[in-house]
Amino acid sequence: MEHEGEIAAAIRRFLRQPAFRTHAQRMGKVVRLHPDGVPYWALGAAVLHSTAWSGA
Question: With the C-alpha atoms ordered 33, 18, 13, 8, is the resulting torsion angle positive or negative?
């Protein structure tokens, strides 16, 4: 696949984000990785949350 290196890099970058660093922090969330930020739904929340990419 031509984009697998980019996908792996994006996942590693996501896992370094302060809000998603641990397994417990990621539980109950549905996340979309996007160049403009990281929108996500959290279990029990009625609104879409979003966080910007940090420099991590």
Answer: negative
Cβ neighbour number for residue 15 with a 10 Å cutoff = 13
pTM (2 d.p.) = 0.79
- Whether 50 contacts 37, CB under 8 Å: yes
> pLDDT tens, 8-28?
999 999 999 999 999 999 999
Residue 3 has a pLDDT of 82
List strand residue ranges (DSSP E) for the chain, in order.
29-31, 38-42, 49-51
- Contact in structure between 49 and 41 (CB atoms under 8 Å): yes
CB atoms within 10 A of CB 31: 17
